[in-house]
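Entry type: protein chain
Record version: 2
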Amino acid sequence: MSLEISQITKTYTTRRGSTEALLPTTFTVDPGEFVSLVGPSGCGKSTTLYMVAGIEAISSGSIRLNGQEITRPGRDRGMVFQGYSLMPWLNVEENVKFSHQLAANIKQEGTMSQVLSHYAYADRLIEIVGLADFRKSLPRELSGGMKQRVAIARALANRPQILLMDEPFGALDAQMREEMQELMLLLSIHERTTVLFVTHDVEEALYLSSRVLVYSPRPGRIIEELVVPFDRDRLLDIKLTPEFVQLKRRLLHLLHGSSSQDRASILMRLQDPANYSPINR
């Protein structure tokens, strides 16, 4: 089974009127796939992700995960934001296990054996993301990359059917960003994690993904689906190959070519003397 997004739209209504954010959008994500959404700011890619998460209502259409319609947040979907969203008073281990502890406290978890199984998996994830030596550390004692590793482990601890990631590495420096990309690729392979990933970074999208969906400027719609032809077990130096560079050039052309008219209109406005006051003349 898969994630099935069918003709979803999003319209925001304010006192000033209605604004179309997302035109009818349809795509699927199969189990084990890593699909990235790219596009200009305000095109609706994050809105799409939030609708899949169930934290943003759709205006029309439907979203189904394994045949079940999504109408609200659920533990079958893990979410990782650009901000780390960690509990500052909890250490690494407690943050990763937090959702299971909460469920156990309100007696939704079933049996103690299930709780222990979840905790054992959370411990394994802490090892996988390389934080075994920091399990008792508080968030303020961690670097940005380490905090995001905690956030990823916490999202995976529920064993979600799909992991939703919204610009998760956007605040990291270039070196840490590549380290996190390698980690995410290994997790998607060895944990068979299904991922829907939003990013502005074209190179990141191509390196991580099996498919890249390109959005138009607002109101957003998918204008291209790019299948990434490389094996999933790829290394960072693939970014230097002619094949990768060619795909990157194509993706950049799709993104910037769609905004060529905007650039032309900006140039016209800049060259129009009517846009300048007498003082500036």
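Comment: The radius of gyration is 21 Å.
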